[in-house]
Design goal:
Number of domains of chain B: 2
Strand content of chain A: 15-25%
Strand content of chain B: 5-15%
Radius of gyration of chain A: 11 Å
Strand order of the largest sheet of chain A: 1-2
Structural class of chain B: alpha+beta
Largest sheet of chain A: 2 strands, parallel
Structural class of chain A: alpha+beta
Distance between the termini of chain A: 26 Å
Oligomer: heterodimer
Number of helices of chain B: 9
Helix content of chain B: 55-70%
Number of helices of chain A: 2
Number of strands of chain A: 2
Largest sheet of chain B: 8 strands, mixed
Helix content of chain A: 40-55%
Distance between the termini of chain B: 50 Å
Shape of chain A: flat
Order of helices and strands of chain A: EHEH
Number of domains of chain A: 1
Radius of gyration of chain B: 33 Å
Number of strands of chain B: 8
């Protein structure tokens, strides 16, 4: 449906998992991270 | 009802005790009145009234002030054993004595009232601060699982065709996890309320500590997947008279904390042993157990250790305080778990101690004195 990736950031692991399932069910790709800045640093 | 009666009785006692003290001091002063003179006796009685004012209510203090003035006049001011005063200087002194005693009593009482009000204000402010902090952490801890349950169930109910079978199962699993978390928080709240009200009455019964430990491990089985668990229980462990429910809750909180606050792959060790105390000495449990001594008081020692990063040394003393959370702790948690664990252990006359291990990690040691039974254990086996 869409090639865009969504970065899910939340300090609660369960909320991250839930959002990932919801987004996946709607055909969206997503990545999860507890810390936004840390994820950006590691992916760049 | 009893408390009201006790308070009334205490009040009534002060009405009796305060004048009695004045009489006793006057009687003692009377013995030395020839040496010290009646004017010094007035000062002694004034000091007595001031001291009574420090501990008593206003009415007994006023009674004491009036009584002391009358006693001084009747027994000490010449002519003795009459309220009549001949010397105008003594009359003036008596009036001044009476005024000073009353003013002194009222002022001292007022100071005490102000101090009492300040203390009550401080207690109220601390209570408000405590409940604010508690509600702040609770709102997060209750809202998160509720949001998870609502979110997951909404997803399941909305458009089921979009959701794969795997994800349906995952959503149900998330609902289950959130429900357990919610239940745990409610249980913690209720337990804290029981501890606060002093309502905890341990229901002690013979308890197999092996069963206790494995019951806790079974309940946390799923969460323990990413950790290595070691269980070391002394084979000669007798049965202990404990409150199984309270102990289960303590161990659940401690092991759950170790799981949450250590990284995956960390080893969690549950070690159980016992120490016999005989006339001020102690023997290690592994030495000569005499089954005949089946009613002995023995210390049960449970250690829960991990090889994680341990606790910051300056925060070790604070972790058992209500709603205390480590400065750099991860999201979630109300800070109630450890204070409840301590409350439940102390309700059984035990102690709980936290220390960092030299090899790394932390160790919680629970020591509970309890009756033991070797015979029952053998029967069970």
């Amino acid at each position: 449906m869409n090639n865009a990736e969504i970065l899910v950031i939340d300090d609660e692991e369960q909320m991250r998992r839930l959002l990932e399932i919801t987004l996946q069910s709607n055909g969206l790709h997503c990545k999860r991270s507890k810390h936004g800045k840390r994820w950006i640093n590691s992916s760049s | 009802m009893n408390t009201v009666f006790e308070t009334q009785l205490k009040k009534a006692k002060t009405y009796f005790i305060a004048p009695l003290i004045v009489c006793l001091v006057a009687a003692a002063s009377y013995l030395f009145s020839d040496i010290v003179g009646y004017r010094v006796v007035a000062l002694i009685l004034l000091v007595t009234v001031s001291l009574i004012a420090m501990f008593s209510n206003i009415i007994p203090v006023l009674i004491s002030a009036m009584l002391s003035a009358l006693i001084w006049d009747y027994f000490f001011i010449p002519p003795h054993f009459t309220l009549h005063v001949t010397d105008p200087e003594d009359t003036l002194m008596l009036v001044m004595y009476f005024v000073i005693a009353l003013v002194n009593a009222v002022l001292t009482f007022k100071i005490r009232q102000i101090e009492k009000e300040a203390r009550e204000k401080e207690v109220k402010a601390n209570a408000i601060k405590f409940y604010n902090a508690l509600f702040n952490s609770l709102s997060h801890e209750l809202k998160t699982p509720i949001a998870a349950i609502i979110g997951a169930s909404d997803n399941l109910l909305s458009d089921t065709n979009k959701i794969s079978e795997d994800n349906k199962h995952n959503l149900l699993s998330e609902i289950s996890i959130a429900s357990v978390r919610l239940n745990q928080q409610v249980e913690n709240l209720l337990n804290m309320s029981r501890l606060e009200s002093g309502y905890i009455q341990p229901k002690k019964d013979w308890c197999d500590v092996n069963e206790l430990v494995y019951s806790v491990v079974n309940r946390l089985e799923e969460k323990l997947n990413q950790h290595e668990l070691k269980i070391e229980i002394n084979e000669k462990l007798p049965l202990f008279k404990l409150d199984f429910g309270l102990m289960e809750h303590v161990l659940l909180n401690l092991v759950n904390n170790a799981i949450i606050y250590t990284t995956a792959g960390t080893t969690i060790t549950i070690r159980v042993d016992f120490i016999k105390i005989v006339k001020g000495h102690f023997n290690l449990s592994t030495e000569n157990i005499n089954p005949e001594r089946d009613k002995e008081i023995t210390n049960l020692v449970i250690e829960i250790c991990d090889n994680g990063s341990g606790f910051p040394p300056d925060e070790i003393q604070k972790v058992f305080e209500k709603i205390y959370r480590l400065k750099n702790s991860k999201a979630g948690g109300t800070g109630l778990g450890l204070s409840i664990a301590r409350g439940f252990v102390e309700a059984q006359n035990g102690t709980i101690h936290l220390s960092n291990l030299l090899s790394g990690g932390a160790s919680f040691t629970i020591t509970i004195p309890a009756e033991v039974s070797y015979l029952n254990k053998q029967k069970n086996e």
